[in-house]
Design a protein that fits this description.
By secondary structure, the protein is α+β, with helices and mostly antiparallel strands. Helices cover 37% and strands 22% of the residues. The strands form five sheets. The chain has an eleven-stranded mixed beta sheet with strand order 13-12-24-23-22-14-21-20-15-19-16, sandwiched between helices. Strands 1-2-7-6-5-9 form a six-stranded antiparallel barrel. β5 (48-53) and β6 form a beta hairpin. α7 packs across α13 (379-396) and α8 packs antiparallel against α9. It is elongated. The protein starts with a helix and ends with a helix. Residues 615-642 are annotated as: Disordered. InterPro entries: HerA-like, HerA_central, P-loop_NTPase. Residues 143-333 form the Helicase HerA central domain. This is Putative ATPase.
Length: 642
């Protein structure tokens, strides 16, 4: 059979830029045809056609079809009314064949009356061959699924094209979004997990808000899991469940400002002075002795001042420093020794009528406690002590007012209690603990920790990866964030603008500049409309599951340029497990069914079947318990008839 006659469908009737219209031959209305022993799908919306312009072969995708009246046919020249009706295809040009290889883009436009053809099976495969050459060598193929409308056609994409990119996985709950994320990384580890180079040079960190990937063997069996928990008491939490972020991450002006929700002009400069004080003290040969000296000078100045209100403000902070349990024992002993003389405005020893002198100050319980002062065991408590010392210094020299600074200190104190439960500041061990896949489970963490930890970890690991990349060119780091709308929202009302700006700037820098340092981001979310447009627009590859909310669909349309009309219109009606694949790794947007993975590697997020738990059958033991309860209830009713 002549290929031209078998696959020929019509001619180009109009050209409007890359949108062309093709008049279909009246004999080409079958849904399928048999060609060279293969079944080829006929004309349908979403399928591909080829337009021949001389020796050029241009490829288009059918966006829509319609019928119209052929006004060129004279009434005398037709026998039936249907002969006046013509079938027209509206087609978007998407690429062309060059030396039998499909190239994306518009090389040139067709001319009127150019012939249009269906694609052969071989040409169809070439359009869906997404394996590109990387540095002159073909990429390594990873099969991820099959075409939804052509289930016999497996889809493979290049590992380098996909994983050396920023990935977005979006879809409503129950659409298969989490399964797709698990499937992609499970397949990658299945190929490379045993390679020594992969173990050494590749690092994957997953932020898991709902605990879907931290149970069992989800994604991979070998992984380090941090189950952060703010519901338990501090001493109930194993140290191995705390994140080893190290001390230096805490003594950061920007971070402290965020945690304290510090004002730009008053509180942030105060925090900067505190950090400088910390660095100054720990640069000394004997930091604790130097710190004691600072406290001794402050005590002398306080007990010799004439301003009662300021003196008592400073004393409160000093008592907090030496009486860490806040039982006020030190304060009670102090006022058994000294009292304030209201008329002459000074401190005096009980039983005397003169102001206390320097020698007598050194014999007070307060001063003796300072002589034996030592730093707290916990770094979070240390920073609070430095905050106290800095505000004392500021008050003594009239550099700040207590009412302006104390709210920032109190906010930091309230947040340090939760951070102590989830962060190990004393450890310098790697967060990966000998693995190359780590998961941070935030399911049992409170909202404050859920907002703070991803930002801290992302910032720290990004900086460390920069250093690794400079030393080892092959170093690779992939940050995976499930339910990313929790931390990448630009319109959250639960936090200050300063916090929100810093958080978004952290992740926006990663997505804009990370590629240069081998850092790549994968985000999954139910609500793309809640995520910063800057972040979504910088993604390279998209897996789009069912989206129903209009705001989410509009966000996708506004920020993703890879989608065609057919793929976009399919978003609200995609079945579970199907998604639109679009981006740099796919030459054309396609709808695929994600391949299944072993049940033990699936995420733990299955929708329950309520009827499985509504069985009428009750065990004999349960019946006996119910009967006893009923008898007791009847007895109680007899005793109390009213």
């Amino acid at each position: 059979m002549d290929i031209n006659s078998a696959l020929h469908i019509g001619k180009v009737e109009s050209v409007r830029g890359r949108i062309i219209e093709i008049k279909v031959h009246k004999s080409k209305n079958a849904s399928h045809l048999l060609f060279n022993g293969q079944i080829i799908k006929g004309i349908s919306v979403g399928s591909y056609i080829k337009v021949c312009k001389g020796f050029e072969e241009l490829i288009g995708k059918i966006d829509e079809e319609f019928i119209t009246e052929d006004k060129l046919i004279s009434q005398k020249n037709y026998k039936q009314e249907k002969e006046r009706i013509k079938r027209v295809l509206r087609v978007s040009l998407i690429g062309y064949f060059e030396k039998s290889v499909f190239k994306q883009g518009v090389k040139e436009l067709p001319l009127l009356d150019n012939e249009a053809f269906l694609l052969t099976a071989d040409e169809f495969s070439r359009v869906h061959n997404f394996i590109k050459d990387i540095n002159g060598e073909p990429d390594i193929e990873l099969n991820i699924g099959v075409l939804s409308n052509e289930t016999g056609n497996s889809i493979g994409i290049g590992i380098n094209s996909l994983f050396a990119s920023h990935i977005g996985i979006f879809g409503n709950t129950g659409s298969g979004k989490s399964y797709t994320l698990a499937s992609l990384y499970h397949k990658l580890f299945k190929v490379y997990a045993n390679n020594s180079g992969f173990k050494k040079n590749a690092k994957f960190l997953l932020i898991d808000f709902n605990g879907e990937y931290s149970k069992g063997n989800a994604i991979v069996a070998s992984k380090k899991i941090y189950r952060l928990n703010t519901r338990l008491e501090f001493d109930e939490i194993p140290n191995e469940d705390k994140l080893p972020l190290g001390r230096e991450i805490l003594f950061n002006v920007e971070l402290l400002s965020i945690l304290a929700d510090a004002t730009e002009k008053t509180q942030k400069p105060f925090l900067k002075r505190t950090v400088n004080l910390y660095k100054k003290v720990f640069d000394k040969e004997n930091p604790v002795e130097y710190f004691r000296g600072v406290l001794k000078n402050q005590t002398n100045k306080t007990l010799l001042m004439a301003d009662k209100d300021k003196a008592f403000e400073v004393l409160d902070y000093l008592f907090h420093l030496i009486d860490t349990e806040f039982e006020n024992d030190s304060k009670r002993v102090f006022f058994d020794e000294l009292e304030w003389q209201n008329t002459l405005h000074y401190f005096r020893l009980l039983g005397t009528n003169r102001q206390i002198n320097t020698d007598e100050i050194q014999n007070t319980s307060l001063y003796r406690s300072i002589v034996s002062y030592d730093f707290p065991a916990n770094d979070l408590d240390i920073i609070i002590h430095f905050l106290y010392v800095q505000i004392i210094d500021d008050l003594l020299v009239n550099k700040a007012k207590n009412d302006h600074i104390s709210p920032a200190i109190n906010k930091l104190k309230s947040k340090t209690k939760d951070l102590q439960k989830v962060i190990d500041f004393d450890s310098d061990r790697s967060i990966f603990a000998g693995n190359n896949f780590a998961i941070i489970d935030l399911n049992n963490a409170n909202l404050s920790v859920k907002k703070t930890i991803p930002m801290l970890v992302a910032s720290k690991e990004y900086l460390e990866q920069k250093i690794r990349y400079e030393n080892e060119n092959g170093s690779f780091f992939n940050l995976i964030i499930d339910e990313a709308h929790n931390i990448l929202s630009y319109d959250s009302k639960r936090e200050s603008d300063t916090w929100k700006d810093y958080r978004l700037e952290t992740f926006e820098e990663i997505i804009k500049e990370g590629r240069k340092f081998g850092v790549f981001l994968t985000i999954a979310s139910q609500r793309p409309s809640d995520i910063s447009d800057t972040i979504i627009s910088q993604l390279h590859n998209y897996f789009l599951h069912r989206l129903i909310n209009n705001r989410d669909i509009q966000a996708v349309e506004r920020t993703i340029s890879y989608l065609d009309k057919i793929s976009f219109d399919a978003l609200p009606i995609l079945p579970t497990g199907s998604c639109v694949l679009a981006g740099l790794s796919a030459q054309v947007p396609i709808i695929i069914n994600i391949d299944p993975i072993p049940k033990e590697n699936e995420p733990y997020n299955k929708t329950i079947r309520p009827t499985d738990f509504w069985d009428n059958e009750v065990s004999t033991e349960e019946e006996e318990v119910e009967q006893v309860e009923e008898e007791n209830s009847e007895t109680e009713d007899d005793d109390f008839p009213f």
